[in-house]
Write a structure and sequence with these properties.
27% helix; globular; 11 helices; alpha/beta; 394 residues; five-stranded mixed beta sheet; seven-stranded mixed beta sheet
């Protein structure tokens, strides 16, 4: 196993528990050639710091796997890590009302670059680099013996250009029939594990959907922006919402949102589903003097339409300002972001800027982060990426 020397700053970060090895961390960047290679990290005095694997992912070139010089990284290592993670989610398997959840959350469970979700008998693995993909057989083997195993699907979120690879995502076991119906807090959701990068639901928003259903939606008019497949709207209608308006630029969103309503025996024809740019809808709503009791904002971190490029770090205040204009007095704005590049403090500052631009007062009702199955690493703040704030417009 080769030894790789880190710069002083990078070595200090690793000593403090940071698990990601950044691209500029190596003294000699030419040492590592083949992704998946295991290597020892040393500081400028050649002191051992950790054992890592080489895998190119966004800003990083690898992840720390162990800080024990004597630990062997082999099939037993992967089995132990995944088995521990499964034990931590034992209570989820026992809950018939929720049949989809995360069972392995990358660096939060000790192996960066890979996540594993459970969908009603099927395990879905997301691989974020060619490096971790080299250990796929060790991970497949563990999942074959996991609870309620029926089959394995995977998403390779990399190629030589760092783009998502379209492929048949089935790996082994029985093939699922799609749409596969999963449950979340007693609600039904249709998912597809073999059709592009996303499945039809973001499991990390489970608690937020629960709050909307149980606490906020009753008799309310709900605008769901960047609505994707309308998962928030399903929760709102379960909570007794008067009506939902769903807006998303993707053409597929209409059919997929209708499907989510149908699998819950909700009248999709009584709901509004619009395929259009959210910012154009804001202008339309303002022109027609429409106002909503609840507006849900869950934009992608970065999005591009024909006329506009949206970045949460830059454009969230404007999004808040546009939303305020069509929210009723004492209405609720559910502001969400999954941008890992900043924390809750910065997100609240972006929200505050939007309200100040509109010269409107507000109150924070509550905050949400990742649910408990999405384990995070306290030494890697980026792992706690989800930030949701419930706001009342005063």
């Amino acid at each position: 196993m080769i030894e790789v020397k880190l710069t002083n700053q990078a070595a200090q970060n690793i000593k403090q528990g940071y698990p990601l090895i950044m691209k500029d961390a190596l003294v000699d960047s030419k040492q590592l050639k083949k992704e998946g290679t295991l290597f020892k990290i040393v500081d400028s005095s050649n002191n051992y710091l950790a054992t890592a694997y080489y895998g190119i992912q966004n800003k990083g070139i690898g992840w720390v796997l162990s800080r024990n010089k004597k630990e062997t990284i082999d099939a037993s290592f992967f089995k132990e890590k995944i088995t521990q993670a499964l034990k931590k989610r034992e209570n989820f398997y026992q809950n018939p009302e929720t049949t989809a959840f995360r069972i392995f959350n990358s660096e939060g469970d000790g192996i960066g670059g890979v996540t594993i979700d459970y969908y009603a008998g099927y395990y879905l693995i997301d691989w974020y680099s060619e490096g971790i993909y080299a250990y796929r057989k060790d991970i497949y083997h563990v999942l074959e013996t996991a609870q309620n195993y029926q089959g394995i699907y995977e998403k390779k979120r990399f190629d030589k250009q760092g783009k998502y690879i379209e492929q048949d995502d089935f790996v082994m076991g029985e093939r699922a029939e799609f749409p596969l119906i999963i449950k979340e807090n007693g609600m039904n959701y249709a998912v597809n594990l073999n059709d592009g990068a996303m499945t039809g639901i973001f499991l990390d928003q489970r608690n937020v959907r629960g709050l909307i259903r149980n606490k906020y939606a009753h008799k309310k008019l709900v605008l769901n922006t960047f609505s994707y497949t309308g998962a928030f709207s399903v929760a709102a209608l379960y909570g007794g919402a008067k009506k939902t308006i769903n807006v998303d630029l993707a053409k597929r969103s209409k059919v997929m949102t209708e499907e989510q309503f149908k699998v819950n025996e909700l009248d999709y024809e009584a709901q509004e589903i619009r395929v259009m740019d959210v910012f154009n809808y804001f202008r339309y709503a303002k022109r027609h003097e429409l106002e909503f009791d609840i507006v849900i904002l869950d934009p992608p971190s970065f999005a591009r339409s024909k006329k506009f490029t949206f970045s949460t770090a830059k454009d969230y205040p404007e999004l808040i300002s546009d939303t305020i204009a069509i929210t009723k007095q004492n209405g609720v704005i559910v502001a969400s972001t999954n941008n890992a590049s900043f924390g809750m403090k910065k997100f609240k500052q972006l929200i505050d800027q939007g309200f100040k631009q509109s010269n409107v007062q507000y109150k924070i009702l509550e905050e949400e982060y990742l649910p408990e199955d999405f384990k995070t690493n306290k030494n890697y703040p980026e792992s706690n990426y989800l930030k949701v704030v419930f706001l009342e417009k005063l």
